[in-house]
Specification:
Shape: elongated
Radius of gyration: 29 Å
Helix content: 10-25%
Bound molecules: calcium ion
Largest sheet: 18 strands, parallel
Number of strands: 37
Strand content: 25-35%
Oligomer: single chain
Length: 562
C-alpha cells in the first residue's frame, strides 16, 4: 500500500473536490485508432469518453474521475499507433497500463534496474509535433499515467514531439512507464524532442515514486531513455515537483547507455511551493549515459540527493554522461533571478566527460547562493570534479581571496587548506585552516578520502569521512586539527567548506597524502625492556637511544612529504 503523508492527503482532498465519488472504469479492448463503433473500445475513444463523461465509439461513458484500463486479446505487446494526436486528458483520469494481462510492475530492489513487463505501447511515429499524451488544464488535476511504453518508431520525427506533456495542471503522477525505450527495455525508440515536458505552470507533479520513505518504491520507477531531447524538461513555474527513483539514459537493467540526446533532467524555474527547503525532491535517480546529466537553473528549494550521475544503477560501475554531471546556476540572459536553497547530498557524480558539479553565476545581477553540498562522491570526471564558476561553463579552480569578499556563485566561499593528515591506528587527524570573511562565524567542513589525487589527476572527493564544525576568530581565521575515527592509512584527504551561515559551499581544498604513524611505529627500533640485572643508568641510556632513533625517523618521514 502506498503511503505518502504529505501528498496523498492533499491528493485525496483534491480528488474528492474535483470528481466527487463517481468513477467509471473504461476498458480499452482494441489497438485500433478512431472512434467508430464495431471495432472495440479504442484508446482515443476511451480518452474522449472519460473527458466528456459520454459514451464514445464502443467505450462506455465516463463518470467524473475515471480509470482507463486495458484488456486487449492476445499475448505480447499491443502497440497503438495513433494517426493523429490523441485528445488531451482534460478531466481527472487514471490510465493504467498494468491492467493489461501479462503486464507487471518492476519488483527489483533499488540498484538493479527494472524488470517491468509492459504490454501497452503508444507509438507516436505519426503524430508530428504533438505529445503522445497531454494532460491539460485544472479540470485534469489528479491524473495518473502508469504502466505504458510511450515511444516513437518514426525515423525522422519533427522537433517538438514529446512523450508526455503537462500544462497548467496539478497532482499528476507518472509512474512505472518506459518513455523513449521499447518494452524490451533495450531498444531506443525515442520521442523527437524529449520524454516528459512540464509546461507552465505545474504543481505537485510526481515522476517516479511519491512514497515518503527512504527508498522509492520499485513499482513506480520510470525508465526514460532513448529520446532525441532531454529525458525530463521544464521551462518555468514548477513547484512541489518530485522526480524520484527513475532511470534516465540507461537500459531497463540500468547497466548500459540508451542515451537521451539531451540532458537527463533539464529544468528552469523550479519554485518554492510551501517555502520549505525540500519542497522539490530530485532523489534516488540514476542519470547516466545522457548528453549531459542534470541542469537546474533559476531554481530553488530542492533536495537533490542520492542520485547516481555517471554510474550505473549499482552506483559503482562507470556509465558516463557525455558532458557535465550536474549544473546549478542562473540564466545569464534573465535577471534578476534567484537560485538558492538547494541541498546536494549523498549523490555520486563520477566519470562524466565534461566535469562533475558546476555551480555558476554568469550574470552579476543574479543571486546564486545556498547551494549546500553534503557527503557527495565527486570523482573521475573529466575536467574538474567541483567548480564554482563565473560563467555557465567551467572556469577552473577559483583562488581564495584575502578577506573572502569576492562575489559570485555561493559567494565564492574560500576553500579550506589541509596541511597535514596523520593516521594513528583507528584515528585520523587532519590539520587544516580556513581564511575567510573577517568576523567570528560558524562553518562546517566535510572531509573526504580519495585513493588517487594530484600528479595531474584533478582533486577528487570520493568517500566521505566526517564533518567538523568550527568557528573562525575575529579575523576570519581558523586553524585546527580535528581527529576522526577512521582506519584509513593511505590515499589522500580533501576538504570542502560545506556551509557558512548561508549554506554556501566552497570548491575543493588541496589534496594531501595520509601519513601513517602506525606503519612508522612498526618499523621503529624496539625499545629495551628493563631487567632486574640492568642498572638504572643503563636502562635510561637505552631508552634515550631508542626515542632518539624514533624521533629522527619521524622527522625524516615528515620532511619527505614536503
Ligand atoms: Ca470523466
Ligand atoms: Ca572556479
Ligand atoms: Ca572567495
Amino acid at each position: 500500500m502506498k503511503f505518502s503523508p504529505r501528498w496523498r492527503h492533499f491528493a485525496l482532498a483534491a480528488l474528492a473536490y474535483a470528481t466527487g465519488v463517481n468513477a467509471t472504469t473504461i476498458t480499452v479492448t482494441s489497438v485500433a485508432d478512431g472512434i467508430a463503433t464495431g471495432v472495440g473500445c479504442t484508446l482515443r475513444a476511451a480518452i474522449e469518453a472519460a473527458n466528456t463523461d459520454t459514451a464514445v465509439g464502443d467505450c462506455p461513458a465516463g463518470s467524473g474521475g475515471d480509470v482507463i484500463a486495458f484488456n486487449i486479446a492476445g499475448a505480447g505487446v499491443h502497440t497503438i499507433l495513433p494517426a493523429t494526436p490523441l485528445p488531451s486528458v482534460t478531466q481527472s483520469l487514471t490510465i493504467d497500463g498494468y491492467s493489461q494481462p501479462g503486464s507487471a510492475p518492476n519488483t527489483l530492489p533499488a540498484g538493479q534496474g527494472s524488470n517491468a513487463q509492459l504490454r501497452i505501447e503508444i507509438d507516436a511515429a505519426n503524430i508530428g509535433n504533438a505529445a503522445a499524451l497531454s494532460v491539460v488544464g485544472p479540470a485534469a488535476n489528479v491524473t495518473t499515467i502508469r504502466g505504458l511504453a510511450i515511444t516513437s518508431s518514426g525515423a525522422a520525427v519533427c522537433c517538438a514531439q514529446r512523450g508526455i506533456l503537462l500544462s497548467n495542471v496539478s497532482f499528476v503522477w507518472i509512474q512505472g512507464n518506459f518513455i523513449g525505450i521499447a518494452p524490451d527495455g533495450v531498444t531506443a525508440k525515442g520521442l523527437g524532442a524529449g520524454g516528459i515536458f512540464l509546461s507552465t505552470p505545474t504543481r505537485q507533479v510526481t515522476i517516479g515514486s511519491d512514497a515518503f520513505v527512504p527508498t522509492p518504491l520499485a513499482a513506480e520507477m520510470n525508465v526514460i531513455s532513448g529520446n532525441r531531447g532531454p529525458g525530463i524538461q521544464g521551462n518555468g513555474s514548477t513547484a512541489n515537483l518530485w522526480i524520484r527513483g527513475n532511470l534516465l539514459g540507461t537500459n531497463a537493467a540500468g547497466v548500459a547507455a540508451v542515451p537521451n540526446v539531451g540532458a537527463g533532467i533539464q529544468m528552469s524555474g523550479i519554485l518554492a511551493g510551501n517555502a520549505m527547503w525540500n519542497d522539490n525532491l530530485i532523489t534516488h535517480n540514476t542519470i547516466s549515459g545522457n548528453l549531459g546529466g542534470v541542469a537546474l537553473s533559476e531554481s530553488r528549494q530542492i533536495d537533490f540527493s542520492f542520485n547516481r550521475i555517471g554510474v550505473a544503477a549499482d552506483g559503482v560501475s562507470p556509465l558516463p554522461n557525455t558532458g557535465r554531471g550536474l549544473d546549478i546556476g542562473d540564466n545569464p540572459f534573465s535577471s534578476p533571478s534567484t537560485t538558492t536553497t538547494v541541498r546536494v547530498a549523498n549523490n555520486t557524480i563520477a566519470n562524466n566527460t565534461g566535469g562533475g558539479l558546476l555551480i555558476y553565476r554568469a550574470n552579476a545581477a543574479n543571486t546564486v547562493n545556498g547551494i549546500r553540498l553534503v557527503a557527495n562522491a565527486l570523482y573521475n570526471n573529466t575536467g574538474y570534479n567541483l567548480d564554482l564558476s563565473a560563467t555557465s561553463t567551467s572556469d577552473g579552480p577559483t583562488m581564495n581571496d584575502a578577506g573572502d569578499s569576492d562575489q559570485g556563485a555561493n559567494a565564492l566561499q574560500n576553500a579550506p587548506t589541509i596541511s597535514a593528515a596523520t593516521a594513528n591506528g583507528s584515528t585520523l587527524s587532519i590539520t587544516w585552516n580556513l581564511a575567510t570573511n573577517p568576523s567570528a562565524a560558524t562553518f562546517i567542513a566535510d572531509f573526504f578520502h580519495s585513493p588517487t589525487c594530484g600528479a595531474g589527476a584533478p582533486v577528487a572527493a570520493r568517500t566521505f569521512i566526517n564533518s567538523s564544525q568550527i568557528t573562525t576568530n575575529a579575523q576570519g581565521n581558523y586553524t585546527g586539527m580535528p581527529t576522526f575515527a577512521s582506519a584509513l592509512t593511505n590515499g589522500f584527504v580533501v576538504a570542502i567548506v560545506t556551509a557558512d551561515s548561508s549554506s554556501n559551499s566552497s570548491e575543493l581544498s588541496n589534496c594531501l597524502p595520509i601519513a601513517s604513524l602506525v606503519q612508522q611505529a612498526v618499523a621503529s627500533p624496539a625499545l629495551p625492556v628493563p631487567t632486574t640485572n640492568s642498572s638504572f643508568a643503563q636502562v635510561i641510556l637505552s631508552l634515550l637511544i631508542g626515542v632518539s632513533a624514533l624521533a629522527s625517523r619521524q622527522g625524516r618521514d615528515r620532511s619527505a612529504l614536503r
